[in-house]
Amino acid sequence: MIRRVSATSCLSATAFRSFTKWSFKSSQFHGESLDSSVSPILIPGIHVFHCPDEVGIVAKLSDCIAAKGGNILGYDVFVPENKNVFYSRSEFIFDPVKWPRSQMDEDFQTIAQKFSALSSVVRVPSLDPKYKIALLLSKQDHCLVEMLHRWQDGKLPVDITCVISNHERAPNTHIMRFLQRHGISYHYLPTTDQNKIEEEILELVKDSDFLVLARYMQLLSANFLKDYGKDVINIHHGLLPSFKGRNPVKQAFDAGVKLIGATSHFVTEELDSGPIIEQMVERVSHRDNLRSFVQKSEDLEKKCLMKAIKSYCELRVLPYGIQKTVVF
Amino acid sequence: MIRRISLRASGFAKSSFLKSSRFHGESLDSSVSPVLIPGVHVFHCQDAVGIVAKLSDCIAAKGGNILGYDVFVPENKNVFYSRSEFIFDPVKWPRNQVDEDFQTIAQTYGALNSVVRVPSIDPKYKIALLLSKQDHCLVEMLHKWQDGKLPVDITCVISNHERASNTHIMRFLERHGIPYHYVSTTKENKREDEIFELVKDTDFLVLARYMQILSGNFLKGYGKDVINIHHGLLPSFKGGNPAKQAFDAGVKLIGATSHFVTEELDSGPIIEQMVESVSHRDNLRSFVQKSEDLEKKCLTKAIKSYCELRVLPYGTNKTVVF
């Protein structure tokens, strides 16, 4: 398996710059100079917090940031009605000299313990390693192609560790040439009714931060999900909970609906039933045939999956209740 | 039952989608320009070469001017749909002659459906509205009707829920002479015979949040179209409390669906669907509020399309909506 190790390290300088281009911008205007002749470079950080609700959380969190010279540029707090739970997401800029990365982890951890947080995650995109993801797909590759192109354009802030498919692809196809050019390995793992090759898949993906099923048409068992232990995001080409399972576009076409959609969601044991992250629709009418239903659906899947992954990488997606998500 | 007969003619000319025009068409007599009035014709038959030519020629031969024309022939299916909007001089082309002429063509092509409608002459569609407890859809329809935006005659309102006489709806209905019939239902008795008696002379029914299922027998006995509004994005969330179902499911989009009623609950051919975004910041109350706004718009749009002859059956369970 060829990992893009060398590329990662030499990209780090560019990564910083490409991040600042499309991410919320690093700024030289906020914050103070340590030394009047050198203005510090401030870099962005994100913190999400999820804990039982009580008085004083925002005060503590914001004070933690301010005390180290960090400047909060955005803040989202959500406390649902009649539920004793607190969610926040803050975007701030800070001077990593004044507030070293490891210190930041410690400081937030202290608050997390104090409030018995269910989740407290800090991310400094320009310093932290990119999320490592593996992509799984079957025969339809429009979602994969979209993701690869976005990734190449720097719009998908991840490291693609490998691509796994239960469908073989010839080396002279667009995808295979693309992957080879970028040193991303492609693993053909054919599945059968009896054998879903989950152990082999687990070996390949166990070091990834999360998985993306980009039209992977095999069910991942509960055992696999438990062993892998991390999030798996799927794109379903239907507006859940309508049209679960196979061929939702044909189901929609036969049902005579006037709107079709796509849904990205977390994968659970139960098919197409995990917490929904994002949904998108488009109008259809009698003038659409199955072909145009499929075309509109594919366009929606690409946008919907990209949006979900982007939100996830930006720490915008949090679990809410049993079956829902908060998406800041 | 008091009908709004005297107001009907002028009400249509105001609210109809096509203005009567003095610019198209020719004068019979140079000193009098004819008043041209709009007509709509929908045609549904087996496909063949020459249908459009025949239909358009039929209209032109009588001096009618086609202002809009929609034709739809589905892929790989031997069926033809068209809808034409035209203006014509009723002196040159009398109303009953219009019927005859189109009927001839309908027979030529063994049409499954050929309907002509001249909104300013033909009687308005007579409809009955049924509802249960939630009345936001009914209120919306009554107000649109009052504003002349819903080109129907409301013959009566039927509900399995009693309403006090000093409520907005009851005072409105009384002011406009529309009777309200409280027909309470139980699990054993849906009182469909009585409902049938009240609605048998209507052109179609509108279920504006009527929460009882109409049986296959009733639908067969009534024989005409019944339009329902379902406060969910079918086929998701059929049945009761779809807003709560959607809320619990954690969807990010909620919707409303208007459809024709069949024996099977919430499963008939869909006419119109609308959606709105929801997020974690929505509680059940705002889910319901957004849903109600969607229901009103969706139902009104469906009824308007239906009255304008835009809705045609397509296949077993679908619709063409021009």
Automatic annotation (TrEMBL), chain A:
Pfam families with a match to the protein in the record: Formyl_trans_N
Domain ACT: 46-129
InterPro entries linked to this entry: ACT-like_dom_sf (IPR045865), ACT_dom (IPR002912), Formyl-FH4-Hydrolase_C (IPR041729), Formyl_transf_N (IPR002376), Formyl_transf_N_sf (IPR036477), PurU (IPR004810), PurU_ACT (IPR044074)
Highest rank taxon of the organism: Eukaryota
The keyword Hydrolase is assigned to this record: yes
Record key words, sorted: Hydrolase, One-carbon metabolism
Protein name: Formyltetrahydrofolate deformylase 2, mitochondrial
Gene: LOC104718608
Automatic annotation (TrEMBL), chain B:
Domain of life the protein comes from: Eukaryota
Signal peptide: none
Gene3D superfamilies registered for this protein in UniProt: 3.30.70.260, Formyl transferase, N-terminal domain (3.40.50.170)
Entry keywords, A to Z: Hydrolase, One-carbon metabolism
InterPro entries: ACT-like_dom_sf, Formyl-FH4-Hydrolase_C, Formyl_transf_N, Formyl_transf_N_sf, PurU, PurU_ACT
Residues in Formyl transferase N-terminal domain copies: 126-303
Name by which UniProt lists this protein: Formyltetrahydrofolate deformylase 1, mitochondrial
